[in-house]
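Check this:
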Amino acid sequence: MDKKHDKLMTDIQRILGTQDFQSEKEMTDFLKKLMEDEIPSFPKEALNFEEQAQDLVFEAYELSPEKGKQKIIEALDIDPDCIEAYEYLASLEPVAEIRLAFYNMGITLGRELFGGEYLEQNKGFFWGLHETRPFMRCMQAYADGLHSIGKTEVSVTIMEEMLELNPNDNQGVRDLLMLTLIELDEDEKFVKYEQMFKEDESAAHLFNNALFAFKTKGEGIDANYKLSLALKQNEFVAKQLLSKREQKTLPNTYGYGDVNEANLYTFFAQYVWPEIEGALTWLKKHNPK
């Protein structure tokens, strides 16, 4: 994630918090003028402890890891509940178990800070709220990490919680969730989320649908049709899945139908498709390129 952009959005949220708009138009006009000018940063003395700690974390990302960690120590000294600080520590940690522990700490703090009445009022909109995004990012990284070390059931629990907090799924957790549900034979849950996101035309969604149809019904009209839709949407996925070369990295960006979208899906799917008996043979048969 672009931390400079995150810092910019944080400053905008702080500025908006100082205003008392009487109408939506007044707020829109204010934002338009604000974006035309340089967004001011708040002086330290104008910030509360939580905001001061957040700014220290932003500063940490601009420094070397050694100096950055010193900023994080300062941040946690000011605000022990700073989720962003634990997110930062996790991002630097090479040991998976320790990295997951840091993300889990961020999640624990988030559940405490955004529980109770806050949860009742805002459940369903957590990605749209600036203050809950670090919590949601920790949840996604934690779920991905759990999945990578084989703790798939716990990973599913986290991802399902994320979809309750943010049904729009701006983070795209449904892709890994639905793939994992195929792996775990959770057919009813898969159908639930397939219907929930039936308008999704991404490669991940289409290839997951095809794989699920093949696994549950075998090769036939339904599975073949769904595979044809997937192959038409992204021609690179089949080549990646059929290749013996392991996809080891996640792309930073991707577009519908491009090779990066294929790399993103293959990163997780390359371990699931071979587990479904006959799936790769079926895929090769319908993709003779």
User: Anything to note?
Assistant: The first helix runs from residue 3 to 17. Residues 146 and 155 are 6 Å apart (CA to CA). The chain is about 65% helix and 0% strand. The radius of gyration is 22 Å.
